[in-house]
Amino acid sequence: MKPVYRLTWLAGRAYYALYHRWHVLNVERIPLTGPVILAANHGSYLDPPLIGCGVPRPINYLARESLFRFPVFGWYLRQLNCVPVDRDGAGAAGLKGILDRLLNGGAVILFPEGRRSHDGQLQPARAGIGLTVIKSDAPVVPVRVFGTFEAWHRHQKLPHPHRVTVKYGVPIDFKVLREEAKTCTKPRLKAIYQEIADQLMAAIAKLEPVEDVT
């Protein structure tokens, strides 16, 4: 970890432990080296740092490209391994940035739902993550966060001291679909993207906490 990243990582761990009484479950399932995609549900701004702070290796995050225009803040985001993407995270430059990080053995957090949940419930998956999975060789780890919507949903100005939990699932290898994608038709390829996204959301939905998180 780079010095600024490590300091932020330690501060984040302290924040989640003291203010949100966090639980981190099955982090040993995350490969400590090599490329990996962490695919998680999304209920709050708390989710990306929560997922990253639970993992003892550097993580690459997505951030709006407009945020990098501010010199000091842009520098800080780069120290945190942030990848600049457009508003929806679907642009060619953003995809290239994500794939470059994976090609270099990095770990990347992606959200199959595409945006934060409006009611705290799991939302339908978008096909975008399927495209990223197909164009990489990285294993995909389903991740589920609990309590972050209640702690800081989109209508709250500041986070509340609600307990949060992050649970990491078993890595999924999409080798069969990756092989099919090399020679299939364009309509089938689009269907594969959505199939992968749906499989990931199903895997996320199956992750349950081992104890009450309220």
Please explain how this structure is put together:
The protein is of the alpha/beta class. The chain has one domain (3-206): 3-Layer(aba) Sandwich (Glycerol-3-phosphate (1)-acyltransferase). The chain is 39% helix and 14% strand. The protein has helices at 3-19, 47-53, 71-79, 92-103, 128-134, 148-151, 175-181, 186-206, and strands at 23-25, 36-40, 61-64, 82-85, 107-110, 140-146, 165-168. It has a five-stranded mixed β-sheet with strand order 1-7-6-2-5, with helices on both faces. Helix 3 (71-79) links the parallel strand 3 (61-64) and strand 4 (82-85). Helix 1 crosses helix 2 (47-53) and helix 5 (128-134) crosses helix 8 (186-206). The relative contact order is 0.20. The model has no long low-confidence stretch (mean pLDDT 93).
